[in-house]
Design goal:
- With 357 residues, the chain is of the alpha/beta class.
- The chain has 2 domains: 190 residues, Glycogen Phosphorylase B (Rossmann fold, 3-Layer(aba) Sandwich), CATH 3.40.50.2000; 160 residues, Glycogen Phosphorylase B (Rossmann fold), CATH 3.40.50.
- It is built from 14 helices and 15 strands.
- The strands form 3 sheets. Strands 4-3-1-6-7-8-9 form a 7-stranded parallel β-sheet, with helices on both faces. It has a 6-stranded parallel β-sheet with strand order 12-11-10-13-14-15, sandwiched between helices.
- The longest helix has 21 residues.
Length: 357
């Protein structure tokens, strides 16, 4: 059996070691798919290895660094965190005992490392890209140069943004989160209550102040629940919000997360598209999987070719009467997504790019 190492150099967690985001979820999904064809090992930040200690990898090896989210976000921390990422990346290349490395959550510093520090070896490097390119301003063009140079050093690419293909000789689209009826059907069946929820990591790339003001004015029920990387911002939002808004600073467990998402008529994604251009969103997909209507930037929906209520500017939500939006407004389009985003498409993508049947 061929051997492969799944690599994750960017383990984000709090000081207690709780992993942020959907890292553990996708790691388990890809392990389930790859283990049918490969002997799979894991090289990852310590918090990820600890969180997945009961999963059956051929081997699990911790890298040196986690990225802590509950430290003050100073200039010094930003620099130190980037150096930690580069050191983790170097460790992945040096410590891997297999000939195939699969980096399944990457950011710009993966491309920077490949472009500047990585020398092509016998090992094959594959990656899964959520953020397809870097285009726009003057600095973006510089970043794009590193990105394009790095692409020449990878052996294959899986990308998740359907409307934005990667220019590479060995590239294939696959969904970043897989739809499985056995996992999501019970949440689809939950009664969709007249409310909107905003879930996930509450970082500076979400326009929470503007969202709070709009819903305070409309009176429509809104729940904002997730881990805030700035506690002062959390306290200020609580003071800012009206009685119809519930704001909690806590990390949701998987079951509670899906129950809250699946019981809401709407899922709000208040992304700052200056920072979220050419990206995918796991919360967007999971909203569709549980039957909640996504309310998201029109650009995000369009780039990913997904249904929902799109807006150009968050202020446009003030003119939408959410109570009068039918709960089944996007049901036909949603069903088509469920058919296309299943395990079969991911298996096909892995086989095409890794070229192993």
């Amino acid at each position: 059996m061929n051997k492969i190492t799944m690599c994750n150099y960017y383990g984000m967690c709090d000081s207690a070691g709780n992993v942020m985001g959907h890292t553990c979820k996708v790691t388990k999904e890809y392990l389930g798919l790859l283990s049918k064809r490969y002997a799979v090992s894991l090289l990852a930040s310590p918090c990820i290895v600890m969180a997945l200690r009961d999963k059956k990898f051929e081997a699990k090896t911790s890298l040196k660094y986690n990225i802590l989210i509950d430290e003050p976000f100073t200039f010094k921390k930003r620099i130190c965190d980037k150096l930690k990422l580069l050191k983790n990346l170097q460790e992945c290349v040096q410590k891997s005992k297999t000939d195939i490395l699969f980096f399944y959550q990457v950011d710009f510093f993966f491309f920077f490392y490949l472009a500047v520090l990585y020398r092509k070896r016998k090992k094959k490097v594959y990656c899964l890209i959520y953020h397809q390119d870097f285009t726009g301003g003057r600095m973006e063009k510089v970043l794009g140069w590193f990105y394009q140079k790095a692409l020449k050093k990878v052996d294959g690419i899986l990308y998740t943004q359907k409307g934005h293909p990667v220019k590479h000789i060995n590239a294939c689209w696959m969904p970043d989160y897989l739809y499985g009826e056995e996992q999501y059907l019970c949440y689809q069946r939950l009664e969709k209550q007249e409310k909107a929820v905003c879930l996930g990591t509450m970082n500076r790339y979400k326009c929470l102040e503007e969202l709070t003001d709009i819903f305070s004015e409309s009176g429509y029920p809104l729940l904002i629940i997730g881990r805030f990387d700035d506690t002062r911002r959390f306290e200020q939002l609580k003071q800012r919000g009206g009685e119809n808004i519930q704001i909690e600073n806590r990390l949701l467990g998987q079951k509670e997360y899906y129950e809250i998402l699946g019981s809401a008529k709407f899922s709000i994604l208040p992304y700052d598209m200056k920072q979220y251009q050419n990206r995918t969103s796991g919360v967007l997909l999971e909203s569709l999987y549980v039957g909640s209507i996504p309310v998201a930037p029109a650009g995000l929906l369009g780039q990913n070719k997904l249904p929902g209520i799109g807006y150009g500017d968050l202020k446009e939500l003030a003119s939408i009467d959410l109570k009068n939006v039918p709960a089944d407004k996007i049901e036909r389009e949603r069903r088509l997504v469920l058919e296309e985003f299943g395990e079969g498409k991911a298996v096909e993508a892995f086989e095409n790019v890794f070229q192993v049947k």
